[in-house]
Task: inverse folding
């Protein structure tokens, strides 16, 4: 994972917050930055869990790595 600096006006317009995930792609001479919804936000509330991991996205990636090996 890398960090990039996005100008404040652009962040506000795209409703990005510190730590937001984005998809970056190039189209001809343009760079397109699209906000991504974290997996944790998409599935939050589906399962009843006593205590959620601090970083659910990292937890899911770790589980997937262990499952595939």
Result:
């Amino acid at each position: 994972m890398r960090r990039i600096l996005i100008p404040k006006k652009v962040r506000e317009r795209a409703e990005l917050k510190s730590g937001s995930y984005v998809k970056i792609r190039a189209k001809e001479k343009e760079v397109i930055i699209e906000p991504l919804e974290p997996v944790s936000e998409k599935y939050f509330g589906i399962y009843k869990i006593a205590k959620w991991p601090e970083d659910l996205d990292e937890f899911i990636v770790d589980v997937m790595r262990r499952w595939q090996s």
